[in-house]
Amino acid sequence: MFVMELTYTAPIEDVEEVLDAHIAWLDSYYAAGVFLASGRKVPREGGVILAAGVSRAEVERIAEEDPFTTAGVCSYRITEFIATKTSGDLAAVRETLA
């Protein structure tokens, strides 16, 4: 599983200009079953996405195609972790240690 943490690198007005395209990008990966949750940071300086079911290389490619990335308004920090304990709702993405 991955935590995709994005940090805005441009004024919020520039982020807002690309927001609709970013939401459409999010929706496509929710539909594909890759994204599990997402939302804004508080204070509003970026966001967080939980992703699963793809490789590190794939999640990096996904981040590179985010309209926020292509517009140059954010940077990503991607953290991989093994979700050995989850709520019942996330049991499908629960992992075991090798």
Layout of SSEs?
Elements: E1 2-8, H1 12-31, E2 35-40, E3 46-51, H2 56-65, H3 67-70, E4 74-80
Antiparallel strand pairs: 1-3, 1-4, 2-3
Explained architecture:
With 98 residues, the protein is α+β, with helices and mostly antiparallel strands. It contains 3 helices and 4 strands, in the order E-H-E-E-H-H-E. A hairpin with a 5-residue loop joins strand 2 (35-40) and strand 3 (46-51). The chain is elongated and about 45 Å long.
Please give a quick description of this structure.
It is built from three helices and four strands; from the N terminus they run βαββααβ. It has helices at 12-31, 56-65, 67-70; strands at 2-8, 35-40, 46-51, 74-80.
Structural shape: elongated
What's the total number of strands? 4
Radius of gyration, Cα only, in angstroms?
Answer: 14 Å
Task: Give the strand order, joined by hyphens, for the main sheet.
Answer: 2-3-1-4
- % residues in beta strands: 25-35%
Helical percentage: 25-40%
Q: What is the rounded distance between the termini?
A: 15 Å
Helix/strand structural class: alpha+beta
Topology as H/E string? EHEEHHE
